[in-house]
Amino acid sequence: MNSEDKLEEVRLQVDEVNEDILNLLQKRKILVNDIAKIKSDNGLSAHQPSRFNYMLNKILVSAREKGIDETLVREVFEAIHKSSIKQQEEGLS
Prior knowledge:
mainly alpha, Chorismate Mutase Domain, subunit A, 0% strand
């Protein structure tokens, strides 16, 4: 197998991982809808900073253990969280 074939093979694997990430984001979105419903039923705010801080710290520890760049992980999960808050607020209104 030449280097171009090897590169294409690895790129296909990256494409599969990207699809896995999208599937997980879709699953997370469904769970966030469930969270929004529970919060709405119980008069809770969409934004709960202590929960986010707990979750982020736990994720950063895991990222460190896996040798993944913490700045990248923080930025990704802050973006995901921001989207989740928006989704919950839309569900609560």
